[in-house]
Structures
1.
Amino acid sequence: MSLYEAPATTTGHLALPTDKTHSRSGSSYSGNYSFINMYDCPSPGSSHAVDPTVESELEELHLTEELNSAKRLGEVAEVDEGDEGDGQGQGQGQGQEADEDSSVKESDTSDSKDGTIVGSDTSGTNAGSQVSATMVGSSSVLSLARNSNISVSTRTSSIPFDPTSSILDISDQAVHDQVLKSNFDRYGFKKPSSEGSNGVSGERYNTWFKDYSRYLERNKKKWQALMKNNGLGEAESRTKPPNRFPPKSDKVKKLIRKGIPAEWRGNAWFFYAGGHEKLNKHTGVYEQIVRDTEGVHNKDTEVIERDLNRTFPDNIYFNKSLETKHLKDSQLNSSAGKEETQSIKSLRRVLVAFAHYQPHIGYCQSLNFLAGLLLLFMREERCFWMLVILTERIIPKVHSANLEGVHIDQGVLMLCIKEYIPQLWGILGKNFEGETLSEDKILTRLPPVTLVTSSWFMSVFVGNLPIETTLRVWDILWYEGSKSIFRISLTICKMCLEDTAFNSRGNVGSGAEIDQIELFQFMQNYPKTIIDPNILIDNCFKKIGGYGFGSLSQDEINKCREFVGKQRARLTSKKQSVMKAEMSDEERRALQSSGFDGEIHDVYGFHRSIMSGVAWNKNISNRMKKKWKK
Amino acid sequence: MSEAAERFAQFKLVLLGESAVGKSSIVHRFVKNTFDNMRESTIGAAFLTQSVHLAESNTTVKFEIWDTAGQERYKSLAPMYYRNANAALCVYDITSRSSFSKAQDWIKELKKQAPEGIVICLVGNKVDLKDEREVDEQEVAEYVEELNQEQSSAGAPAGKVILAECSAKSGDGVLETFNVIARALPVEDAVGGARNRQLRNKRSSGVDLSRGRQQQQSQAASSCC
């Protein structure tokens, strides 16, 4: 029994999902829903509505103009808030992305072209849905379809689903109960089966989910009110996920931090990240790259192939064999589950296209998780451009061939921990020999804990935090930019420090050394236990009772990044000048372990003055904040 | 056998090798005795611990396991991994030639950069897929032999590369590999405290530092397995 048969049976003869973005998120639910149907409970499928495809498509075309103006408003809001510590990510350059010259006509063309790529433009709808109807019925047709036509093979056309159907509406008691009963969560991820070192039990999940779904319900009402107040059609937001969102403002920011309704997520992320501008500027580019890269074999594609099936193996949209988990293990290992899901196929195209488009990055492990999560909420073309935005603008160089951005951001994070959580720095700020790192050595020899924290940046918490918590962080990330990753990282670190289990490890008693590996293990596993996103978000941002990391500004992060980058560049050039001389392995080893301390000492004199510059800026931002309050 | 008190020693072991050769799977088989057909790619590093008990010397060896991401570009983080490492597991996939040459590169790198006296073990994983074998056992044995001869002729201190094969899926050879490594590690140094400050602080009293006869034997056996 194929997973993808399920939507066909429960959703009947759905037309192609119109909304390109949301069909995917919808399909998650659909699949999950039907999965539940198949194994857990009788079919409640009647509530699935037929998606008014054509209408929504047309509407999107007309939206672009308004969207551009909305965007400009957004920019203004950004600038206005710029000086405030927790203002909108002015460092992201989102405003620069907006194409001043993009005429309405241009945008229209791009959008409709856009449609052809995913096989969901108005004219193609019928044909598309026919194909997809066949496809969902037969898995072998699925693979045929992939080779014949890009548009057919995208998830959008292959998994028809109305994103506004009841599955997302967990206020519907029946649906709510099904999620509780199922072994899978709303997004198709397997619920943890037992309390392990790196997770929470399904039982604990359910306890939390019952409360949290009520929270979501209340929250969605607030969103609907916000949309209405911004003249963004109440009707629209009731029947299908909106394509336009209010311009950036304090109010919107607050609501974003409370969480975007899951069924709107893909569209909202794309909107606030500046996806429309990016897409409008690069009409048809993704389609072309996919065509150009089909069947390409190189170093990147090799690694990509190895990673495809290692991306979300616990999600039913990525791992077919989960469907058959109720079978015996022996059966499972045979033929079942070997077949690729549509998500895996999309993932391959996106990653290969990305490697081609960004040759200085190519493929970097962790991009598979980023793309994978995006694919749960949007179609692949949008996913592609979101990856581009993330790697160009939000966390540049983090995935580059030498991972320079990882070193830089970890340096920044360590400086931040030293500055803001000195108590934790006293424990973590040690080298491998257990000696406390002096100020001038933080950047030359990053403390080993950065091996834990670097994955927080590379995969932006995917796989580090529980899925719902990750999604809430992503809501903020696409709206506020990279400072969010630092703020959340610091919050996690502080939560670690305050955890009693950490303390029992941290204060091993009378002057005894702390077992570093135990600390690393703790910090590695701790984020997985933050199952309630509100605790993390409140700790980070709440003005009263929170940690105050919400006032760490993008400006400060940017300055700090620049500083660390410069220091590293100087260090590297010094290293090279020392290293290029002929020397024996032993000499080299000795030099390596000395960490070039003598060589870079003067660099660190420089360090202090710049760091005080950063501190100065912090004071400024504090003063500005007070001013704003008045 | 003498009634020596039980000894404890803790060592840092790092896993290196091309992506998808099964590094994390080996670790999970060793630590949790579980196996997943599809395991998520490791990003950055993962930390686990597991102990083995060597009956012949009444010694418990605790491994701090540093599991790493396999992709080439993560190499820039590698010095952080193997700094202060006592042992390295260079893993290749017996069904992939390229993974074997990658493992050879790692050994070269370790010989150049890693701390002296590091115990290196070259492990071929996925022996359950013997029908798809691409890396010849004999060839690997010859490579290791050559490597170890070079080592001794260069007058370098002992530190022969250990050779092993295993299957994380079936579990064959996994525990044995870690046992062999444990026996090759300088347990008496660690217990004595030169290497291991935590243990020195916690457990330095009443430890018998004499080297057991059996341990010597098993060490000899391990280097030619």
Note: Residues 404-629 of chain A form one domain.
2.
Amino acid sequence: MKNKNLKQSLFQSQWLMLLLITILISVFTAIANPRFLAINNIMNIFEQIAVSGLVAAGATILIISGNFDISVGAIIGLACCTNALLINQGVNGFVASVAAVAVCMVCGLLNGALAILFKAPSFIITLATTSVYKGIGLFATKGVIQTVYGKFDTLAFTKIGGVIPLSFVISLLGFVVVFIILNYTQIGRRIYAIGSNEKSAFLSGVRITENKLLFFMLNGFFVGIASVLLLSRVGSALPSSGAGLEMTAIGAVVIGGAPISGGQGSAVGTFFGVLLLGLISNVLNILGVNPYLQEIASGVIIILSLGISALRFKVLSR
Amino acid sequence: MEQILELKEINKSFAGIQVLHNVNLTLHAGETVCLVGENGAGKSTLIKILSGAEKPDSGSITLFGRTWSSLHPSQAMELGVATIYQDVDLVDTLSVADNIFQGAEIRKNGIFIDRKKQEEKAGEILHALNMAIRPDVLVETLSPGQKQNLQIAKALHKKAKILIMDEPTASLGEDETKALMELIDRLKHDGIGIIYISHYMDEIFRVGDRVNVLKDGYSVSERQIGEVTQESLIREMVGRDASNYYRKGNFSTGDQALEIRGYARGNLVKNVSFTVSHGEVLGLGGLVGAGRTELVRMLFGADPKESGQMFLNGKEITPVDPKDAIKKGICFVSEDRKGEALFLDRSVKENISVAKNEGSFFLNLAKEKELVDHSIEQLSIKVFSREHDAGKLSGGNQQKVVIARWLAMDGEIYIFDEPSKGVDVGAREEIYRLMEELVKRKKIVIMVSSTMPELISMSDRIAVMKDGALSTVIPADEAQEDELLKWYMGIK
């Protein structure tokens, strides 16, 4: 009986499984190449996952609520361009960043509003707005790369205690905020409720429209912070700067145990999803795997984790 | 006659809740044993154990003299146990003959299926059973009764000695039911043992040799059919007299505090006005589609309306949406529990506290736990823990969770739409007690019900709706079922 409980609790939390896998991979890699365990390398992983982490943190909220925003890659591109254009106009970096975050929140809000107005799945709406936002970015920059080398790299290169990258700490804070929202606030309960059953939520006194808009805006906020970190690290902006981040984020949320249909999921799960994806790409690098094959690997990881989820549900429903 | 099956002291629990307690069942060759009990009494679980779909926690299964602790589905089939389900076991797009020989096809040269020979043999089998089914037609063209016959034929072809029939007449017409009864007689004559599950008393008395009553997972009795009557069976199933429907006391203050004035929307609801007093249950009766659900949803602010105002103690409180309604003390238990009341993949805790949590930004988790534990205890909701998924509960417990959500809100006005739909008799009574508790505390209750005894016994007054309009309001103690029905149909 006690054994069964242990098995149950292990299967109950996806993040425990992910932690286990993370440790396993780390141990094997460290044996194959001790360089993996160097502080530098580990901090490198953290730095790598800072941006995608924030995007995934926001996506956790949306996906649990049963929504999607696949335009976040384009939104990040637009925000990076806005930010860079403003800085190059001589605007203070902080003010420009606030503007970039605002752009992201407005774009998110627009996505939500359109999805609600046309009663269309947000997946489809944001597929359409992706090209709108990309187009605006291209129009504003005339397709020319906007460089801010040396003007906006404090965020990316600051290390706390000379070791821990500030960007990772910011990303971690983002997860803490999402964790608190999901577990300790009324908004969190609304996110789960709307994702689980919108009609029930409505009849329980949850205002659906307002809350969905709020979720999209919250997602926009996290995406905005991510765009600021990204610009600081890369030093230049293109409308395509954030391309692909939406899929990494959705992948991480799904790996973290949230079903695509919504209603379930956790901040901790997503965090380990992001960490696992970052770890894998680092490990493949360290082991000298062909970069093209690395792409395949990240896809396979998502498929594997879906398999683990399915297995979990099977064990739990026994 | 030879005993072919004995289930002995079977125990089974799911997620810590025991659904079978030392249940016994025996069956002889050529005998029909009827298994009866309320929804959730454990009949299906017992059948699943016999057919190998579930493993018992303890107990033994003796088949034809050999004893097993549990069975595997394919093993049960080999031993001659066949369950006749509705539809599910047949392939619609294959012919009758193909279905009978499925998995054991007759082959030509070891590779190709010999259709002709299969159809010939299938014809013989069906003919021997007196079934008027052509072996070469597709299964999808058969009637529900024919499909059931085909399943029986298929099971017998596979040398089944024990047939389990779970509500076999649920989708059958009168003639088909009669034909099935005759078939069962023939099967009995051929020495087949049958376990027959049904809610229909006349069928039980028609085909049964013995009756086995299950209640709350316990074997209550096992008697010869001659020893029981309808009344005695119902008494054993529910543990009390059937005539003794719940009797609610009278707590109405007669103050007519709630006034519903001129609610209307198109053809669905036409200018409905009425009043309800504190401590009163106003029952809304009528045929399905009379506009009752539409009306109460409008009252709760869930659906748009063209006109209508609501006054409590002379003050207007017409809600604009459910959130507003809840703030004004109106609570609504929907008729569609799974579709629009529960969050099936969320915990009992979240399901209960969802409306309550709409008050403050940060949750008070300790207080929430206290509230939920109190609710679970107060309503005796059968759960393993408060983190249990609501979707895994039985219908009655799910309904209690929904009611607990609204009791926690301590509203003024409670609207119940079909409060006992899909709820077993035991839980139904508890729900009635909770409703009575509300009116004792001088709450205002509006109840939509399509069950006449419920409407008459639980209401103080009954408002009848027909085609969207309120046709009459009558005191419940003067209401007769036949009179009400005349109002429903507009004969009066």
Note: Residues 174-189 of chain B form the longest helix (16 residues).
